[in-house]
Amino acid sequence: MEQVIFWILAIGTVASSVAVIVPPMGRNPVHGALSLVVAFFFLAGLYVMLVAHLVAVLQVLIYAGAIVVLFLFVIMLLNIQSEDLGHPRPTISKLIGVIAVGFVSIVLIGFILKDKGMAEPPVGLPSDSTFGTVKTVGNLLYTSYIVPFELTSILLLVAVIGAVIMAKRRL
Amino acid sequence: MAADLAHLSPLLIVCCVGLGILLLDVFADPKQPKTFIGYVAVVGLLVALAATGWLFATGGVLLTQPYFAVALTLDPFALFGFALILVVAILTTLASVHYLPSQRCEWGEYYSLVVFASLGMMVMVAAADLITMFVGLEIMSVAIYVLAGFKRQSPFAIEAAMKYFFLGAFATGFLLYGLAFVYGATGSTNLNVVAEHFAKNDPGLYGIVIVIMMIVAFGFKIAAVPFHMWTPDVYEGSPSPIAGLMAGGVKTAAFLALARVFLTAFGGADFENLAISWREVFYWLAILTMTVGNILAVVQQNVKRMLAYSSISHAGYILIGIVASRSVDGGAVAGSGLFFYLLAYALSSVGAFAVVSMLGKDGEEDITYGNLAGFAYRHGFAALCMVIFMASLAGIPPTAGFLGKYLVFTDALAATHMNLLPLVLVAVVNSMIGVYYYLKVIVFMYMREPRREFETIRSVPMGIAFGLAALVVVVCGSFPDTTIRWSAKAATGNPSADSAISAASVIDVPAPVATTAK
Amino acid sequence: MSGIPLSWWLTLGTVLFGVGTIGVLTRRNALVVFMSIELMLNAVNLILLAFARQRGDEHGHVLAFFIIAVAAAEAAVGLAIILSVFRHKRSVNLDDVRALKH
Fold first, then answer.
1. Do A113 and A162 belong to one domain?
2. Do A69 and A9 share a structural domain?
3. Would the CB atoms of C71 and A94 count as touching at under 8 Å?
């Protein structure tokens, strides 16, 4: 049963992410962004399978809810006509890049699948486990990871200033 | 706890300065020039520098609060980096105060972005945990992306920002993939815990993935060949003082972070015996970076592009320092030449870009050697400083650049773990090639008649910026004892490594709520 | 509930990462390239969560949290830069960004 769900979600994720980058769908950035939302939802499902409930919620809220909406907003704002997109020009360097990335990925996957330690399914969690809930993750966030957590606030501030500087018409 | 806050004061002061000048800008009269904000930033950074000096004099401090200690290390290594980054940020700010109005992009946010970028760099060099380092790296990068495109009305600047952004974000992906595997192998991202784990266990497949991904990610940040393509375009399109900050500050921070990650966490013997040893990879990257950077610098007509390629070739020399260094007892970095070289290189390049900023008034997109013709007759002092910077970058005595090269090469020849003689020979040949294009600048400044009148920015703070940088470069080159002592102190590494490990292992025990999950 | 070995998760993550990388290398539309980078970050998150599940500790969840936060910050700045480029060039095609080529 679990494997069936895994395969459905995995195939859905890969298919929708390929749709983001492959021209027929990805040709139009709006279609690309919508495929991206679909991929993010499938990923959120996979995160639930991994008992990462908080991250799954964040995935939907922030990635699908905020980031992709921002993408769509910019696409609408730019009102890109298809002539702005230019025509895809397959070049030798692109081909080499694709072959290299594909080769490295396949080699890596080969190693991963051969590795004995990785082939074992993870230990089961007790049914009353608090693994991956807001409480336990928040606990870590405010203790061991308090310094990077506070620094993230500076990062977001810098990003806000930066976005205003770059995008505002009149300063 | 209170002592920890005092020890973290360099970071806290820089953070407050950034927030303070942001507020200052809000309440400032929008019709008045924003010069004073720059001066406030300089004063604030000087205070942080003084705090850093105080901590460095005490020889590095221990953070007692365990949650701070797992994220940050304030050893002499980090404090040396703090000081260098703060000096570079101060010089950049001084060079900018009259440059910005001349480019019609004088907004107060510029200064807070410079300060926040420095904060990010400081976090990077002090990070004891990969995720802290990553957040610091992102603070720095996001600020620098925007600063690169700060002349918003110029298409060159915006394209520089875009190019830098895309390559930076792409590199981030690789860094995170490596980080995920570090976590997968060790269950932690704390550098000391990672080092402990790999001292006992064979890194195996994880090790190879980590090494490849980390090298790609850091390769982009330090602009090592073959990951250097963005450098000349970005340096050329950015405001000149920011190009100085990228060459002097970003590179320093990236190199120190790289040294800390590889020498502390992946410094174990097992990593040397992997199918892909990072030391071997850096060895070849160093040769490639020096040579390609140098050859491309020779053919440039544009001075900013020449300086960009020169900074690429210098990344090669600095990599020699990394290859020659060896971790001793969990985190110590042997090889003080690396630190001296970083100091000489950072100050020389910031100074050189500050001098180039003077030419900004006349349409900066194209500063060719021709524009420098006769520069010495009208700006004797600036030209003299430029001569010092070029001599330092070329490695001519009595400048700091010469001594830096000398120290790095002796470190490399003294290294027992690897025969680095071929590397040093390549570096020496490259240094000789380098003399050609550095001398070309001097020849044009002093021996050519000006072809046409061109306007320059006359600015006292800018003069102070490159004057100070030149002074330090000459003093460090002629009376190096103090600086060498500081570099050696920075190289002795981490007095707190053991306690950091114990603090980390205390925390690594899952919290009571999490134990039920096991 | 567990039955999926770690290697499957890592394979899926690596495939996603590869898809993202290929997207960055082949597509010239700045928006699509940026979406590909987001895919790469998500692949990393998946790998982190799989490791966290395997080890039975939540540190990986915290790391994923940071990556999501950073992705949001990058998205804000990146899209602002793309907007700015579009104002100058009326195009978001990376091949058109050639003013700096010599």
1. no
2. yes
3. no
Question: What's the domain range around A110?
Answer: 89-121
Cis before B398 (ω within 30): yes
Phi then psi dihedrals of residue B456, to 5 deg: -125, 160
Q: Are A73 and A33 in contact (CB under 8 A)?
A: no
User: How many domains is chain A partitioned into structurally?
Assistant: 3
Listed in sequence order, the residues at least 6 apart from B456 whose beta carbon sits closer than 8 Å to its beta carbon are B358, B359, B361, B362, B378, B379
- Whether the CB of C64 is below 8 Å from some CB of chain A: the reply is yes
Mean pLDDT by 10 residues, chain A (171 residues): 90 92 72 91 93 92 90 84 57 83 88 78 72 88 93 96 87 70
> Residue for token digits 């190879």?
B208
Place of tokens 């399978």: A49
* Residue B374 structure tokens: 């006769």
**pLDDT recorded at residue B200:** 83
Q: Which domain holds residue B162?
A: 2-502
Q: Which chains touch C (3 or more CB pairs under 8 A)?
A: A, B
Measured between CB atoms, does B116 come within 8 Å of chain A?
Answer: yes
Among candidate residues B45, B108, B48, B110, the one with its CA nearest the CA of residue B79: B48
Q: What's phi and psi for B182, nearest 5 deg?
A: -60, -45
Tell me the pLDDT tens digit for each residue of C26-54. 888 888 899 999 999 999 999 999 999 88
Beta strands in B73-119 (DSSP E): none
Closest of B27, B62, B178, B51 to residue B122, by C-alpha: B51
Cβ–Cβ gap C79/A158 under 8 Å: no
Ranges of chain B with pLDDT below 70: 327-334, 362-365, 451-454, 493-518
pLDDT of amino acid A48:
92
Give the span between the Cα atoms of B192 and B331, in whole angstroms.
8
Residue B514 within a domain: no
Tokens of A153: 């606030």
Nearest-Cα residue of chain C relative to residue B151: C84
Number of domains into which chain B is organized: 1
Show the tokens assigned to A129.
């486990």
Question: Could you tell me if A78 and A96 lie in one domain?
Answer: no
pLDDT tens, B38-47?
A: 999 999 999 9
Six-digit token string for B258: 């790289």
List C residues 72-91 in contact with A (Cβ-Cβ < 8 A).
72-77, 79-84, 86, 90-91
Whether residue B507 lies inside any domain: the answer is no
Statement to judge: residues A109 and A140 lie in one domain: no
Which residues does residue B61 pair with via DSSP β-bridges, in sequence order?
Answer: B74
What integer pLDDT is reported at residue C4 of this predicted model? 84
CA distance C44 to chain A (A): 11
User: Which of left, alpha, beta for B493 (phi over 0: left; psi -120 to 50: alpha)?
Assistant: left
Are A28 and A75 members of one domain? Answer: yes
Tell me the longest C-alpha to C-alpha distance in chain C: 59
Nearest-CA distance C82 → chain A (Å): 9
In this structure, the answer to whether residues A43 and A81 fall within a common structural domain is yes
CATH 3.30.565.10 fits C28-93, yes or no: no
Residue C83 and residue A78: Cβ atoms within 8 Å? yes
- Asked if B235 and B304 touch (Cβ cutoff 8 Å), the reply is yes
Alpha-carbon distances, residue B281 vs B222, B227, B289 (angstroms):
15, 14, 12
Residue B266 confidence (pLDDT): 84
Rounded distance between C-alpha atoms, residue A142 and residue C65, angstroms:
13
State how far residue C80 is from chain A, nearest Cα, in angstroms: 5
For residues A77 and A10, membership in a common domain is answered with yes
Four-point Cα dihedral B484, B489, B491, B497, nearest 10 = 180
Q: Is A49 in the same domain as A97?
A: no
Q: How far apart are CA B38 and CA A155, in angstroms?
A: 21
- The answer to whether B254 touches B221, Cβ cutoff 8 Å, is yes
Amino acid at B275: A
Mean pLDDT of C67-91: 91
Q: What are phi and psi of B24, to 5 degrees?
A: -55, -40
